[in-house]
Design a protein that fits this description.
Strand order of the largest sheet of chain B: 2-1-5-3-4
Oligomer: heterodimer
Largest interface: A-B, 64 and 61 residues
Largest sheet of chain A: 7 strands, mixed
Distance between the termini of chain B: 45 Å
Radius of gyration of chain B: 15 Å
Largest sheet of chain B: 5 strands, mixed
Structural class of chain A: alpha+beta
Order of helices and strands of chain B: EEHEEHEHHHH
Number of strands of chain B: 5
Radius of gyration of chain A: 28 Å
Number of helices of chain B: 6
Shape of chain A: globular
Chain lengths: ~850, ~160
């Protein structure tokens, strides 16, 4: 282990981070190459680039600290939360800390975590089945900025602590040397090193800068010793702190810049009329009238050459083909686009587009229901489910439907790009900066097909493309897909020297979201005479996001291209064979279904895709949790039992789910290991920085018990007036455990009121308590939008909704009247927060409506089921 | 195209645009006042809320020619220490923050009225004023609390 402080002299770093060239800037590096273990040669590593010289911290001459934040900030508060971890361990005075957003560059800002492990390391399930060269990191450097799957804090909590502790230690050692005392006599407090005996006057960090640079890098043992004890934390896991770890101050004045707020000299704004059908193309258009609109400068086809054709099913993040109107301002571009639209003739002749144009999502529901009426691929089984059903005294069965949904972040997608010579500069809100940078480079400069996976080509592209990341006006998964960045890069390439901003409208955002999967779930349970389950069968059909990422086999493709993608699909996290789901989706509430039933069979049924399926807040958990948590309530009612008591019985005793013993070949577990990875070093010592995160029913039970207490479940039971009821749901996702009780009223006109929401979350150590609570509040409201209001339908291959009038989302008067959130404090390492509160909302609401005397709702959105909201 | 004089945040600014250009785009693209946000373009989300003569309007559907007759206030003109702004910070309201300038501009007339009359807003009043403003992060509970606090803060 090496942790050193050194002077940063790179001009590009100083410029990009805005620290200022006049400052003495110290970087802090923690690199794994001094680990006393036999590492594989770094050049042999396919995953992850152990990054050296990553200046996450810069210290100015006046002692002020600049913390570089590499993750995208989209409302989850991660950039200040991670910085607070570092500042806490560093004993920095938060008033003297400022934050800078890192541009896209995984070679400079990527932190591979934890560290590579030697080949002989015993890897826990599910890694044990993999080749030893992957994954050696939870987060490899080359995806370190990919802000997705609620894993920022889980992955970077320890690195940030190490950085901060190493810096604090360096200052302490510098002061000790200056004073001629042993470092153990010194301690740091709020930007100063102090002497325990008060024999010396405290020294501000600014007076220790040069000395700190000369402190030798600590060994791994010394670094572990340098970490604060939890009772020494000042910011981490504190309920009430003076400091505010969020960006609120600049947000309320309108000062902060979002994606559309960069106004460059000579900039043109582009609006694009896109082909409504995935994989379609532009046949012809007439620009005459559009060009007559004052301010309109140019009209041109947006066509990105690719062997895969225009964006759609199987073309990852390539945009739908379209025609762009470029103008001197947004309104002119919009007016020009209106004139242009009727003149465009789309080309839907390709085999894929022709299939897509017949897609009707209402009819498709029937296809999904038929798919789940037949056996699918077995993904998990316990015992003999058929004999379990044979023993049953009664059978409960139900089907659950969830339509396509759109993320609809408040800020519609936007990207600005300018090509100057052979350099492209991009300003864009993205959750996926590394891929956005690569895709922008691919579009602007071209990449031969055989260089797609080439590291040298990627390194070259990082030099050619600078991608700045402003704050995101919401993300929810939409901004993980940089198709809009590709559009800006294309128009910048076609208009060299001219900055071009591609502005999406809300209509564009809703029509061309990468929509969440449409899904049908079939569940069947056998109940014994005592009401306890004897067997459980679940069949899940959903359109997989892998159909978007990797093309399904197509007649039009060369055979080698088809086989290449087939191979990629199967290798990549056990992607299912088309049209089945990937291990990512299966892991989200299907394979890891927690119920303790004697016999069990879980199947995945096929579902072909005809639009770009993507992901949104909590992804496959949306439909899996809706189905299983609703069904638990249906089973309880069939058994004549209290739903909360029955739920606890279904969850059963506290235990680790041993999925490998029940046929789950590789459980995705959000990329994290299910057990600690112990790496031996220096003889018998063990290098242990990453926790294990197994699915643990004891933690699930705990949140259920906690939420029952919070909501006064037992006392209220049977005492609520007619028309009012409580519903409960509990689910583990993104390694965290959430239970929700909704207290609702429904009157004789079917008008729904949500009186109270009680939520218990176990997300391991809650680092930034106020932001965790904010995410839970927001996650519940996001889930209510989905459950009651959200629905995307497709007819003739085109999305029918367009704006908030026909794709309604939750408004303030529909919000729960009272929200009560409790964080269950545990000793576990931090886990996901942004997504886990969302999946439990729809089932808790459906269950509450039944408790209030309403009828069982088995499909979203509830407003289609005669619920007035 | 015509030269239109706008009275924005206490100063007179000239823009040379079509009179039917929505005020939103004149503010953002011509005057560089980017604190006012584009969220839907059809008066459904409230991200573009500004004041005309102290009244909250949706600038995405207000012609710049109409706005020229009024005193325009945007989030940049609110001063930074309006009780709403202070309570928004105090309550940790914003998540992504994108809708918050519009939320604040929608709330300010109610809060100012309550402060003038020394009364507190009811939940129904807050719902009436704020239901036109969407927040996808779901910060509504904190918005409600911040409005109540801002109305009650003595300055």
């Amino acid at each position: 282990m090496k942790a050193t402080i050194y002077q940063v002299t790179r001009r590009d770093f100083l410029r990009q981070t805005g620290v200022g060239a006049g400052a003495l800037v110290l970087g802090c590096t923690i690199a794994p190459d001094a680990l006393a273990i036999d590492l594989p040669s770094l050049s042999e590593l396919k995953h992850g680039i152990p990054v050296k010289d990553v200046p996450f911290v810069a210290i100015k001459l006046n002692g002020d600290i600049v913390i570089i934040t590499h993750r995208a900030e989209m409302g989850q508060g991660i950039r200040s939360s991670l910085a607070a971890v570092l500042a806490d361990e560093m004993e920095a005075d938060w008033k003297r800390v400022s934050l800078r957003q890192a541009p896209a560059d995984s070679t400079k800002f990527g932190v591979a975590f934890p560290y590579p492990v030697p080949p002989e390391t015993q890897l826990p399930y599910p890694y044990a089945k993999r080749d030893v060269d992957k994954p050696l990191f939870i987060v490899p450097a080359d995806v370190a900025q990919f802000t997705d799957s609620s894993r920022s804090m889980a992955a970077y909590y320890m690195p940030m602590r190490f950085y901060g502790a190493a810096l604090r230690r360096a200052f302490i050692h510098a002061a000790a040397k200056k004073w001629g005392v042993d470092p153990s006599e010194c301690y740091a407090e709020q930007h100063k090193v102090k002497h325990k005996g008060n024999a010396h006057r405290p020294l501000d960090y600014r007076r220790l800068l040069l000395g700190a640079q000369k402190v030798p890098a600590p060994t791994y043992d010394q670094l572990l010793d340098a970490l604060k004890k939890p009772n020494e934390w000042r910011y981490i896991n504190k309920e009430k702190v003076r400091e505010t770890f969020n960006d609120a101050a600049d947000m309320v004045t309108g000062k902060v810049q979002y994606g559309a707020d960069f106004i460059l000299p000579g900039m043109l704004t582009a609006m694009i009329e896109r082909c409504p059908v995935a994989n379609g193309d532009v046949k012809s258009f007439d620009a005459t009238e559009a060009l007559q609109v004052p301010g309109v400068v140019r009209v041109m086809k947006v066509s990105i050459p690719s062997p895969l054709g225009p964006g759609g099913v199987g073309t990852a993040f390539l945009p739908h083909a379209g025609v762009a109107v470029l103008a001197t301002n947004t309104w002119a571009a919009w007016q020009g686009r209106r004139k242009l639209k009727p003149t465009i003739v789309w080309d839907l002749s390709s085999e894929v587009a022709a299939a897509n144009k017949d897609y009707d999502s209402v009819k498709y529901r029937r296809t999904l229901e038929e798919s789940t009426a037949k056996p699918g691929i077995h993904v998990r089984h316990r015992g003999d489910v058929d004999s379990g059903f044979a023993q049953a005294a009664s059978v409960v069965e139900a089907g659950y439907y969830v339509p396509h949904l759109g993320q609809a972040p408040m800020e519609p997608p936007v990207a600005t790009a300018v090509l100057k010579g052979d350099h492209l500069e991009v300003w864009t809100p993205t959750q996926n900066p590394d891929v956005a940078q690569w895709l922008a480079g691919f579009v602007a400069f071209g990449v031969p097909a055989d260089k797609w996976e080439d590291e040298a080509a990627k390194a070259e592209m990082r030099k050619k493309v600078t991608l700045h990341m402003p704050l995101l006006g919401g993300g929810f998964g939409r901004k993980s897909k940089p198709d809009y960045v590709a559009e800006a890069a294309f128009l910048a390439k076609e208009n060299p020297g001219v900055p071009v901003r591609v502005q999406w409208t809300r209509e564009d955002d809703i029509r061309f979201a990468y929509h969440n999967a449409v899904s049908h779930q079939y569940l069947k349970a056998g109940l014994g005479a005592d009401g306890r389950p004897t067997a459980l069968l679940q069949r899940s059909a959903f359109t997989s996001l892998f159909a978007t990422l990797f093309p399904p086999p197509r007649k039009g493709f060369p055979a080698d291209l088809n086989s290449m993608f087939e191979k990629k699909r199967s290798e990549f996290r056990l992607g299912g064979k088309y049209p089945y789901g990937s291990s990512i989706e299966r892991s989200q509430g299907l394979e890891d279904m927690p119920f303790d039933v004697p016999t069990l069979r879980i199947e995945n049924c096929g579902a072909p895709s005809y639009i770009r399926v993507g992901w949104m807040r909590s992804v496959a958990n949306v439909y899996h949790a809706f189905a299983i948590c609703s069904f638990a309530d249906e089973m309880a009612r069939a058994a004549g039992r209290d739903p909360k008591d029955y739920l606890l019985e279904l969850i059963g005793p506290g235990r680790i789910l041993e999925l490998e013993n029940e046929g789950v070949e590789e459980y995705y577990n959000n990329e994290f290991p299910t057990a600690k990875i112990d790496v031996p070093f220096s003889g018998s010592k063990v290098f242990q920085v990453v926790g294990g995160y197994p699915p643990d029913t004891a933690r699930l039970r705990k949140v259920v018990e906690e939420v029952a207490r919070m909501s006064d479940w037992d006392a209220k039971k049977g005492t609520l007036p007619s028309g009012r009821g409580l519903g409960i749901a509990a689910h583990r996702s993104f390694l965290s455990y959430v239970a929700l009780v909704l207290d609702v009223s429904i009157n004789d006109k079917n008008e729904l009121t949500i009186n109270e929401a009680h939520c218990a979350i176990d997300c391991g150590l809650a680092v930034n308590i106020d932001r965790v609570v904010a995410q839970v509040e927001g996650g519940i409201n996001y889930g209510l939008s989905m459950a009651v209001l959200g629905e995307i339908t497709v007819k003739g291959g085109a999305v029918e909704q367009s704006n908030f009038d026909n794709y309604p989302v939750l408004r303030i008067h529909q919000t729960p009247k009272k929200v009560n959130i409790h964080i269950v404090q545990t000793d576990f390492d931090p886990t996901g927060v942004g997504e886990p509160p969302t999946p439990v909302v729809a089932p808790a609401l459906a269950n509450a409506i039944v408790a209030a005397g309403g009828r069982r709702i088995r499909e979203m959105p509830f407003r289609n089921q005669n619920v007035v909201f | 195209m015509s030269v239109i004089q706008l009275h924005v945040n206490g100063t007179i600014r000239s823009v040379n645009v079509d009179g039917n250009m929505p005020l939103l785009w004149a503010l953002r693209d011509i005057l560089g006042l980017t604190g006012t946000k584009f969220g839907c373009g059809v008066a459904q989300c409230g991200a573009c809320t500004v004041h005309l003569n102290g009244k909250a309007v949706r600038s995405c559907v207000t012609d710049v020619g109409v706005a020229a007759l009024a005193k325009i206030t945007t989030i940049e003109g609110l001063g930074g220490d309006h009780p709403c702004q202070l309570m928004w910070i105090d309550g940790g309201v914003p998540q992504c923050g994108f809708c918050q300038p519009g939320q604040i501009m929608a709330a300010v007339p109610l809060v100012d009225m309550c402060r003038d009359k020394n009364i507190l807003p009811t939940d129904e009043q807050i719902d009436d004023v704020m239901r036109g403003n969407i927040c996808r992060c779901g910060t509504y509970p904190r918005i409600r609390e911040a409005i109540k606090k801002a109305a009650g803060v003595t300055s």
